[in-house]
Structures are given as C-alpha cells and as structure tokens.
Please model this.
Amino acid sequence: MISIRWFLTLTLIALLVLVSFLSSLRGYRESMAEAETLFDLQLLEHVKLLGLLNPASFLFGNTLVIADSVISTPAELELSLQLLVVYQIFDNQEQLVIRSENSPTQNMAVFEPGYHHAEFNGYSWRALVAQDPGDGHWIMAAQRNDVRYRLAETVTLQAVLPGVIGVPIAGVLIWWIVGLGLRPIQTLAASVRAREEGDLKAVELDDVPQELTPLTLSTNDLLTRLAMAFDREKRFAADAAHELRTPISVLKVQLHNLLHDLNTRQQPEPVLQPARQSLQEMGDGIDRLAHLVEQILVLNRTAPAQYMRQFVPVDLLELVQHVVSNEFDHFLSRDQIFSLDGLPVTIAGDKTALQSLVQNLLINASKYTPVGGQINVAIGREANKVLLQLEDSGPGIPEAQYEQVFDRFYRLSDEQHNIAVSGSGLGLAIVKHIVAMHEAQISLSRSLTLGGLCVKVLFQPYPQGKSV
Amino acid sequence: MIDAVVIVLREVLEAMLVCCVLLASSYALGAKRTWLLPVTLAAVGGALLYATNLATLTALFDGRGQELTNVLLLVLTGASLLFYLLQLPAMLHNKRTLGKKEAPVTSTLYAVLIIASAAAMVRELAEIFIYVFSYGIASGQAVPVVSGAVIGAGVGVSLGIFIFFGLLWLGKRRCLQMSALLLGLISAGMLSQATRFLVQSGFLPGEHILWDSGWLISESSLPGELLHALLGYDATPGIEQLTVYVVSLAFAMLLLRKLMARQGTDGDALRQ
Model:
C-alpha cells in the first residue's frame, strides 16, 4: 500500500498544479486579448490625434528626436522605438501627403476604414485606416505585431510567473503539513513500539486525534485482555507449583516414616528387601517431582517480564566456586574430572538468579557427561565483556537443535542422550530467562578441546567507576 | 507561451502515460517502485545527450538519422509494452502455482519496465530540451518559453499522478485489466507513429493518405494532443500506419483477453 503521506502530498500538489496552471493559462489568454484591445485603442488615439492636425501646415517631423528629449534611459528609448506608431496621411485623391520617417512610400494598408493586417519593412503590422468625413483624407497608423505581442506577454507573464514559482514552495509546504497531520499516527506507533516486553498498560488517550481514538480504544481493549490472559497463565503455574510443595513435603515425611517403620520391623531381610526397594524408588520419584516443582517456580520468578530486578555487584568467580562446592557431590558420584580457571571479575546481577543459572548449567553438564568424563569451567574477559564458559566431554547437542533446547520442557531424545537421565526440561529455559534478565548473551557450540557441548555466556561488565 | 505549453504538455503526457500506467500495473503485480527514479535520472541524461548531439545524429543515414532514432525509440517502447503484456498472464500463473502473496516479479519483467519507460522518456524529454533550447533560450524568448514549458510539464505530470492513483483506486484486478488496455492502445499508437516516421523518411512507400480528419479534431488542439498521446491519433493516416495500428492493437487485445481469462480461472488471483 502506498503511504498516506505520499498519496496526500502527490495528489494535493497535482490538484494545486492543475487548478493554478490551468487558471493561469486562462488568465494569460484573457490578458493577451485585453492587451490587444488596449493596443488597438492606442492606435485609434493616434489616428484621432492625427485627424486633429492640419495636413497642409504639417512638415515631416523627427519623432525620435522628440523622444530623445523626454526619455533618458537607453532601454526606455529602445522600447519607445519599438512602440513607435508609424503613420501615413493621404489626401482624398489617395495621394500621400505626409508620412512618418519609417513608413513606406506606398500605402501601408488598403483604403478601407477599419483594422487591417499589413506586411512591410520585413515585419507584420497591425494597421488602422480611417477616412476624414469632412474632406475625405485618409489617415493610416500601424504598430508592429511582434512588438505588441511581446509587450503584452511581458506584462501578462508578470501575473503568471508568481503562480508558477509559488507551486514548488506550496509543494514543500504540503509535504510538511501532511507530515505534521500524520504525526499523531507515528507518535502512537512509536509509543506502542517503544514499550518494554511485558508492558501491557493501556495506551494513553491524551493528544490522540479523533480519527485515531477508535483504533486506540480497540488496541487498549486488546492489551487489557492480553494482560489478563498473561496474568492468569503466570498465576496458574506459580500457584500450582506453590500448592504442590506442601503435599510433596507431606509425602516425603510419610515416606521417611514408612522407611523407619519398615526398618524397625522384626522380619527377615528377604521379606523386607523388595518393599524397601520400592520405597527407595518412590523416594527418587518424589525428589524428581519436588525438583520439577522448584524449577517451575524459579522459571516463573525469573521470567524477565515479571522479575523485580535487584542488581548488585557480584564476583562471578566466587559465585561459581560457591555453586560448585554445593554441587560437588554430583561430579564425585559420577567420577568426573572438574576444573575451574579464571580471575575474579565483577558483574552487575542478581545473586540468586545467577546462582540458579550456574547451577543449572553445571548440573546439565554433569548429567550428560559420561562417568569419568571431564568438565571445564572458565571465567575471563572477551571483547569488553565478561565470559563464563562451560565445556564438557559429553555427546554435545546437534547444531539444528541449539535454538530449541531453550524451549520449556524440550528434551533431547536420541541415542546419545539417555532418556532415563532425570530432568525437568526446564533448566535451559530458566538459564535463558536469567540471561535475558541480565541483558547477557548465550551461545552454544561444539567444544574444541573436549568435544562435547560448549556454553558461552557473555555478561556486561560491572560499570567502572562504581564502587564494588 | 501557449505554444510552449501545448508542445511540452504533449510530450510530457506521452511519457507520463507510459510510465504511470506501467508503474500502476507493475505495482498491482507486486513489483517494487524503486526502479522509476534511477530510470528517470538516466533518461534525463540520455535525452540531454540526444539533444546536444542532434546535429551529428541528423547527419547520419543521409540526413535521416533523427527520424531513424525516433523510430528506434518508438519501436523499442511499443515492442517492450507488448512484451510486457505478453508476460502478464504468465506472472499470474506463477503467482497461483507458487502460492505466494505477491507474484514473483522476474528480472525480465523489470528489464522490460525499464526499457519501455526509459525509451519513452528519452524521446519525449529530448524533444522538450530541443524545443526549449532552440525556441526559447537561443532566440531570446527564455522567460515565456520556459514558463510555458513548466506549466505544460506541471499539467502533464499532474495528470499522470491522477492516472496512477486512479488506476490503483480501481483495485488490483481491474487495475491490471485497465492498464493492459491502455498499454495496448499506447503501444499500437507508438508503432503506427514509427511507421509514419519511416514513411516520412522514405524507407517505406506511402503516398496514399486514407483520410483527413483535421477539420474534426486538429492534431494541434488539446483534444487532438490527448488522443495522440493515448491512441496515437493522426489526422492524416496512411495505409501502412493504419495496418500496423490495427495489427498491434489486435495483438494487444488478444493478450488482454488472455489476461482476463487467466484472472477468471484463478479463483482468488488479485481479486480485491
């Protein structure tokens, strides 16, 4: 669709040009006809004046000399020369009595009263022929047609030209005014576009022109419904996870009691063993359920749209060391080699969220790295940013799935990724939220040193000059 | 001044008709509009080159160089327009088979658009430059001739803008049909004009003038100019001219029919 601004500007300018130019043309024609009449009247005045003279007592006069004594500038003199009316006076026998300097010796036009077209001296002329009703002598006066036309055009053009010159100026003004008129649309679009993710507040109706009010109202209505839907979704997940915590805790306690009860029974071991095994597996299941519920809660809490950010300076190395010491049992139980390199670097972030990020990445690495495998963590700087890099010797992730693994409940299921590995499928989704919250970047690739997955997170460094 | 207005208006209107109808038609097909500005600038350059080298051009082919250049430009425009019309049904077919929202406009189509509009603009602009220079600036009549040229060009461009938006206003389907009809008429007019130039320069025999309708519509009157630009109106056509006109118009109408048939079979093609 063609932009409204272009449409309005082009059609308005076109309309203006058509109306003003066509009326200029009309004016031009009228003025030219009017000027023609005026020049004819001028000729008539000359003839009338000549009629007042007594031909017998009139001698040849030098009109140029007369003009010279009155007119001072050469341009005006030239004009006067061009405007010069030439004349001839004949007696009633059609014999030439007097003629002006530059008139021919023959009669300029036919002896017939009225306006005539004449050709002499290499020009075309407009001639007026009149006969004295008294003694019947003839008076002829003529003016050059080209001079009359040019003079008339010069005068007329003075009226036409401003219109022609004014159109481009009007065009620029139209472009500007149309832009001004359409500005509320741009402002509205910009105010909607500039909103932060998750900002579903109604668009302010102040300063919205009448024409845009229905659109704004329906947009606001849509935003309200969207906000309510989002809210419901968030509340449902959070409430459900929260409400599930209590029964899970009760289950855990009951399971513990059951195990205790079983252990204190006086029954032979072969009888107790299957029951104890079942209870153990049940306990694992409940642990997984509890983990899943916790992850859902974390996921909801760290959603960028609703997290209340409380950023403080965090030493990334110290934070990683802290998480590793908590989770070291994981690596020990799977006999994995773990290494951590790096210098203390400070970033601005939320400590709890960052711990959750590192924990999820570490547990993921440990989970998918085979027994006896290796996990390297490095902290450093890369191009003015702070780099956290985790590499493992696991099977890695196929490149085609790099995007999808960040989706909620997405599980890798191929031969190399054991489906039995427990997990909620929420770990990387949580990581993604926390990364977005910190305006950091996360990228996955294949580890060049260990052959498994390499996860790189680039954080903004803590602004220098601020006290840590 | 009036002469300048009429002459420039005629030339501008001819070029604007070709460009605006092509622009509207290709726009309805989903083509971009960015090709027009560079083509216009290039055509201005080309026309200046043509106008400044007029003497050299005229001297070619025993003094018939200018007529032949005109014939070449006219045939180039007319033939590209017919070729464009030939491409249209295929475009709609592509759109249907590929199932895209907009028809994929091929580079061939863009080339045809560029050649047709550039050839039309070079010819008309060169005539304007020659007229304005020789009758205006060189003979001391700059102000009236240039103002007349500006008024004529302004009116011509404005009419072109209204033709463009008028065609778009019809909706894509009817816009394509109407512009195809106009392009057919224009191309037939151009090809018959080229024939007239060939007859005038003695390349084709042609003493037989079929009729003289100058008493009804003079070629130099405003309706005559409009009809000339749109239909290639000639008050005194020769038999060759009329034959070329009828044949190319018949071909164009055949293509239009094909286009409409294609639109008819295509359930939702460009229906708006």
Notes: The first helix of chain A runs from residue 4 to 52. Chain A touches chain B through 21 residues (CB under 8 Å). The CA atoms of residues 145 and 204 of chain A lie 71 Å apart.
